[in-house]
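FW: tagging you since you asked about this chain on Friday. Here's the raw sequence from the shared folder, copied in full. Didn't touch anything.
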Amino acid sequence: ITVVPDASRALVDRLIEAFWPGPLTLVLPRRDTVPDIVTSGLPTVAVRMSVHPVFREVLERFGKPLAAPSANRFGRISPTTAEHVVKELGGRIPLVVDGNATLHGIESTIVAVEGDTLRILRNGPITREELSRFAAVTDSTHGSTPEAPGQMESHYAPSTPLKIIEPWQAPQVEIPEGQRVGLLAWDAPVVTDRFAIQEVLSHKGDIREAASTLFAKMRKLDEAGLDTIYVITVPPTGLGVAIMDRLRKAETK
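HL: got it, structure written out here
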């Protein structure tokens, strides 16, 4: 389904050996046999090999590449369990296969392979630091036409308004009288009675655990009947870059 340019072949092979099966999506020139509906008319196609045993069995039995869109309504919080999918799409799709909660929580890293360099289109579980062991890495400059999922200015958004704050701001948040406000904290609850509900991404301060719980915690707060959700920033390095990318897009409406 792809045409791997000679200039990129060695790099693609090394990336596949290092990260497949796993959460790395490679964007490469597509073959003419790939329909426009799969690529939104773009000249490239995004390919990945899932590590999940259920999805791999589906592919093995199907015997062909499978175009798999996200199991949520456009722009909404990404689902990480079958229950989330039913809540989002129940009655709109005929079947949900329950393969337990997702391993990484957030979506795969997407990179465009351009010669012997990599351009990050979406940050994810495979970090810039890991990718830089294989090639020079640059960031995408978003144009008017998205090149990959998750590049819209607003995405991953709850129905409840969401605001990002720094840790020191949490005890000082001003809450209008009569409103119920929730907090999504990074590694510890905030000692205050200002918030009706608090959720913590990782009590151990583990950034990978934080990523794996991010969308489930956001969804729980979104379903709690709050007026506003405040989210404390996580360290913006490594996997924290991907988490903050999701939060900034969720904040924008």
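FW: The chain has seven helices and nine strands.
HL: agreed, and The radius of gyration is 19 Å.
FW: great, closing this out.
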